[in-house]
Amino acid sequence: MKFKVMEDGKEIECNIIKAFRDESNNINYIIYTDGTKDENNDLEIYASRYDMEGNDLVLKPIENDYEWNMIDNMLAAIGSGDN
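-> structure tokens emitted (83 positions)
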């Protein structure tokens, strides 16, 4: 699934890697990429909280270590094929 974000006045198409809701805090999360690669030629991956406002996906920053740990665990599960 794809969605678009605005960055520096440019529209960038992104691919969703995983979208999920954490039932313990009732917050939606999204892990995604814009397809760019870093200096090691690894895919750049981003994570955000998100809300839907009508048909628009609104990204919000990850706010704490609990959320980052959850994202890291989700990426590890995706990488190992467990999810």
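The chain is about 20% helix and 45% strand.
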